[in-house]
Amino acid sequence: MRFKKGFLALSLGLLFINLGCANNDSDDNNAAASIYINGKIYTAKDKDSLQQAIAIAHDGTIIKVGSNEEIKKIADNNTQVIDLENKVLMPGLIDSHIHALASGVEAILATMDSGDTTIDISKVEAKLKQASLDGTGVAGDVLFLNGLSSEYWELADQLSNVFNNNEWKDRPIALVGSDHHTAWANQALLKKAGIDANFIKQLPPDEQQNIAHNE
User: How confident is the model at residue 16 (pLDDT cuts 50, 70, 90)?
Assistant: First the structure.
C-alpha cells in the first residue's frame, strides 16, 4: 500500500487518542492484524513522542509502538505490513465534548453574530456599545462580549489600540472566544485582576505558554 506524501491520519477508535498510553507490554506472541513500519508514529508523550512503528490488533486497538524490529516480532504471515516511507502517522482525533451551558448563556447575553464571519474590529466595538446600553454585556463594572472568532487574536495590537484608549481606556473589557477556551482582556481589566508581566513570570512555564501579552 502506498500513501501520498505528507502527514497521515489513522483513525482506530478512541484508543488512538491516547496513543501515548498504548500497552507496550502486550504479549508479542499474539500476531497483529497490521503493522506500520519505517515511519514517525506520533504518540503525544513528553518523551520519545516519535516511534518508528506500530502494531494494530484485529479489533482496531493498539498492541504496541516501538522500533521496526520490536513491531515485526508481533507479525506473522497473515499480518498486513504497511511501509510508511518515513512519513508521520498522526492519531485520529475525536473531540466529543460540548459547552452546553456556555452556549445557553450566549443565547441571552452579548454575543457576536455567529453567522457573520467577517473579522472587523469596528463591529466588535459597535456590539460592545450596544451591550453596554442594554446591559447584556455588563457584569459589575466589567464589559464583556462573547463569541469572537479566534482570528481576532491575530489582531491583538489593533484590539489594544482600540480598547486601551479613548472611551474604553478606563473600562474593564473582556472579549471571549467562540471556542470558550480563549479570551482577550484590555489593560483596565488586567489591572483590576492584578495581572501584569511580573505576575505572569511567576507562573509555571507550562501556564506561561498559554498567555500572550505585550509587556
Answer: very low
Tell me the three state secondary structure of residue 209. coil
Using a 10 angstrom Cβ sphere, with 0-12 exposed, 13-18 middle and 19 or more buried, the burial of residue 32 is buried
The answer as to whether 76 is a domain residue is yes
pLDDT per residue as tens digits for the range 71-87 = 999 999 999 999 999 99
Q: Where are the beta strands (DSSP E) in the chain?
A: 7-10, 34-37, 40-42, 50-51, 53-56, 62-66, 80-83, 88-91, 138-139, 142-148, 173-177, 183-185
Q: CB within 8 A of 151, min separation 6: which ones?
A: 119
Structure letter (DSSP) for residue 144: E
**Domain match, 155 and 177 both:** yes
Q: Specify the number of domains making up the chain.
A: 2
Which 8-state DSSP code applies to residue 4?
-
CATH of the domain at 22: 2.30.40.10
pLDDT tens digits, residue range 147-191?
Answer: 999 999 999 999 999 999 999 999 999 999 999 999 999 999 999
> What is the reported pTM?
0.59
Between strands 40-42 and 88-91, the pairing is parallel
